[in-house]
Amino acid sequence: MRWSLNSKITAGFGAALAILAIVEFISYRSTNQLVETSRQLTHSQRVLESLGAVLTTMDDAETGQRGYMLTGKDSYLQPYDVANAHVSEVLESLDKLTVNNPAQQRDISSLESLIKQKQDELAATIALRKANKAIEADQLVLSGKGKQAMDDVRALLAKMQKREKDLMDTRTSQWKASTRRTTVVVVSGVVIAFAALLLAILALNGETSERLRAERALRMSEARMRLLVESARDYAILMLDPKGRVMSWSPSAERIKGYKADEIIGQNWSRFFPSEDVQAGKPERELEKALAEGRAEDEGWRVRKDGSQFWANVLLTSVRDEQGVLQGFSKVTRDITAQKQAQEEIKKLNRDLEARNDELEASNKDLEGFTYSVSHDLRAPLRHIDGFSQLLANECGSQLSEEPRRYLTRVQSGVKQMGHLIDDLLGLARVGRQEIKLQVTGLGSVVEQVVHEMKSESGERAIEWKIASLPFVECDPGLLKQVFTNLISNAVKYTRPRDRAVIEVGSTNGNGPLTIFVRDNGVGFSMKYADKLFGVFQRLHRAEDFEGTGVGLATVQRIIQKHGGRIWVEAELDKGATFYFTLQPLESQLQKTD
Amino acid sequence: MGPNSGLEILLVEDNPDDLELTLHALRSDNVANRIEVARDGEEALDYFYRRGRFVGRPKGSQPSLVLLDLKLPKVDGIEVLQVIKNDPATRAIPVVVLTSSKEEIDMVMSYQLGVNSYIQKPVDFKQFRETVKQLDLYWLVINQPPPAKAYGDK
Predict the structure, then answer these.
(1) Are B11 and B132 in contact (CB under 8 A)?
(2) pLDDT per residue as tens digits for the range A396-409
C-alpha cells in the first residue's frame, strides 16, 4: 500500500508521541523506584544505626558496671543506669524498624534474651558489689558468663548488621540495574522518537517544499496569465460568474469599455449591451448559448461607460473545473469598429463602383445602340441618293449637258465619301468597345497580306517594298492588320506624286520595347502639326490632293494603346514620314507568365 | 423557264426607296418571273403561313429565295428567321439576309439561326446592282433548289 504523504507525516508524529509517552511512563516508574529505593536505603541505614545504638548502649552498661566494679563508686554507675533505662527503648525502636523483616525480627527476640542475660549478669555483679561481696562478684565476672553473653550480643548484632548491609547492597544493585535498563529504554526511546520526528519533519518539509513549488508555479502561471490578459491591447479579456456578473477586469477592458475595475466588478454584464438588446434578452441568450454549446460568438454594437457605442466581436466561453462544475464564463471582446467601418466603406465603394459600372454599361449600351443605328440607318439614305442619282444618270444622262452630269458625279462621290466616313467611324467605335483577343502572331505574315492587297490596288505604280523580317508578338491579329493596312495604305497614298516610291517596314529592338516602323518617301508634313495627326477628322492635306476621312490614324492609335503600346511619327515636309509604334516583345511576355 | 416554273422571290423590305432600288436591280436581271413583297416581318410570316393577304397563296409551293432585311417594323428580320428556320415546313427555303449593316451581332445571330447567306448592301448602286445580279444567278440558276420532299408538308 502506498502511503500518502499526509499519512506518513501523521504516522511519524504519532509514533514519536507514543514512544515519548512510553519513555515518560518508564521514567516516571524509574523515578518512583528511585524514591522507594532511597527510602529503603535510609530505612536500612536507620536499622544499622539502631543496631549500633544497641551495641553502644550495651557497651555503656558494661562500662558503667566495670567502673563501679573497680571503684565501687556510685558515680561510675551512671552510664549503666542510663543505658539500662535506655536499652528497652532502643530495642523497641529496632523492633519497629524491622517489623517487615521476619529474619531480623527473629534475631531481635534472640537479641532480647541475650541482652536480658547480660543485663541480669550485670545487675547481679553490681548487686554483689553493692553488697560488698566483691569476691563473689569477681567470681561471677570471672565465670565468663557475662563476657559470653556480651560476645553473643556482639555476634548477633554483627550478624544483623551484616544482614541489613546485604539487604542494602542487594537493593542498591537492583536499583542500579533498573536504572541502567531505564536509561537504555529512555535513550533508545528518545532516539527512536527523534528518528520518527525527523522522518515526519523530513516528510513535512518535502511536502511543504512541494507545495511551495506548486504554489510558486501557480503564482507564475497566474502572473503570466495576468500579463497576457493585461497586455492584450485590443482585446478586453475578463471573467463572468455563472450569473453573468463581472469577476475580473483588465486594463484593456478598461481602455475599450471605459469602466474602472472597482466600478464594474460585481455588475451584470448586460450593461455592455445596448438597451434594446437587453430588452430583447440578448445577454441571457448569449449565456445560455455558451452554456449549452461551450461557446457563443457574437458581433454587434456594445456600449461603453460614457454611452458611446462600438462594434464588437465577442467570444464567450464557459469555464468549468475538473469536476465539470460551471465556474463562469471567459469573455474576449474585440473592438472592430474600424474594421466594420472599413468594411462599410468598402461596401459603399463597391456600391458606387457598381453604380458607376452600371452607368458605364448603360452608356456602352447606348453607344452600341447608336452605332447599330448608324450602321443601319445612316447608310440607307446614302444608298438611296447614290442609287437614284445613278438611275437618273442612266436614264437621262444622254439628255444632260456636261455640267449637270458633273453635278451628278459630284453627288455620287460625296455619297462615297460619306460611306467611307461612316465605315471608318464605325470601325473606330468598334475598336473602342471591342475586347482584344491576344494570340501569338507573326507580324511578317500580316504585313505580307497587307502588302499583297496594296499591290493589287496600287496597280501600275512603281513602288519599292523594303520589308524586313518581323518578329512574332502576342496581339490581336485582326486589329494589327487594321494598323498595317492604315499605315501602309497611307504610305502608298502619300507617295503617289513620287516617280519611285519607297515603302519600308521594319523593327528595332533595343533595350526598350519592340518598335515597329513604316517609312515612306512621300510628301511628308511639317512636324509642327504632328500632334494633330492622331485626332479624329484631323487631316493635313486637302481632300482634292489626297482622299481620306481623318479617322484612320485615330483608329490606329486606339488599337496600339489597347495593346499597351504607343505610336508617334517623324516626318519632314516633302521628304517623307515614318510612323513608329511599340509592342510588347514575345520574350518578355513569356518571361512574365513564367 | 416558263411562267409556272414556280421561281418566285420573296423580298422582305420596309423602306420604299430600298424597295424600289432593289426591285429595279432584280427586274433588270429578268431572272425571276415573280417577286412577292412583304413590307414588314409580320407580312413575311403571313406569306409563309398563308395568312392575311396571302390567304390564297397556293399550297405546295415555296419561294425559291427569300431576300430578308433585318431592320423591320413589328416583327424584325431575326425573328422571322427564327420562326421559319425552326419550322420543318419552311426550314429548307434559302434565305439571304440583305441589309445595311454588317454589325457582328446581326451576323452571328443570322448564321446561328441558319441563314444561307449574309450580304451587306453596298452604298454604291452600281455595286449593289452587281451584287443582286450575282445573287439571282447563284440562287436561282446555279444552285439546285431543295426538292419538294425537303419541305415537311404543312
Answers:
(1) no
(2) 878 888 888 888 88
B100 touches chain A (CB under 8 A): yes
B128 inside 8 A of chain A by CB: yes
Q: Best interface-test mutation with A: which of B101, B107, B128, B129 has the largest number of A CBs within 10 A?
A: B101
Q: How many domains does chain B have?
A: 1
Whether residue A377 and residue B71 make contact (CB cut-off 8 A), yes or no, is yes
Q: Output Rg (C-alpha) for chain A, integer angstroms.
A: 74
Measured between alpha carbons, how far is A100 from A219 in angstroms, rounded to an integer? 77
How far apart CA A486 and CA B72 sit, in angstroms, is: 35
Candidate from A379, A412, A415 with C-beta closest to B100 = A379
Instruction: Look up cell 515614318; give the residue.
Output: A578
Which of A365, A378, A384, A412 is best to mutate for the B interface (most B CBs within 10 A)?
A384
Burial (CB count within 10 angstroms: exposed 0-12, middle 13-18, buried 19+), residue A33: middle
Q: Tell me how close the Cα of B116 comes to any Cα of chain A, in angstroms.
A: 21
Q: What is the pLDDT along chain B (154 residues), one digit of tens a residue?
A: 333 345 689 999 999 999 999 998 888 776 666 889 999 999 999 999 999 989 988 887 888 899 999 988 888 999 999 999 999 989 999 999 999 888 888 999 999 999 999 999 988 888 999 999 899 889 988 988 888 888 875 4
Q: Tell me, what CATH number does B31's domain have?
A: 3.40.50.2300
Query: CA-to-CA distance for A118 and A123, rounded, in angstroms?
Result: 8
**What confidence tens digit (pLDDT) does each residue in A455-492 have?**
888 778 888 999 999 988 889 998 999 999 999 999 99
A412 contact residues in B (CB cutoff 8 A): 124
Q: Residue B74 is part of which domain span? A: 8-141
Residue B42 resides in a domain: yes
Question: ipTM for the complex?
Answer: 0.79
Verify whether the Cβ–Cβ distance A376 to B71 is below 8 Å: yes
Contact B93, B146 (CB under 8 A): yes
B106 in a structural domain: yes
Residue of A nearest to B15 (CA): A380
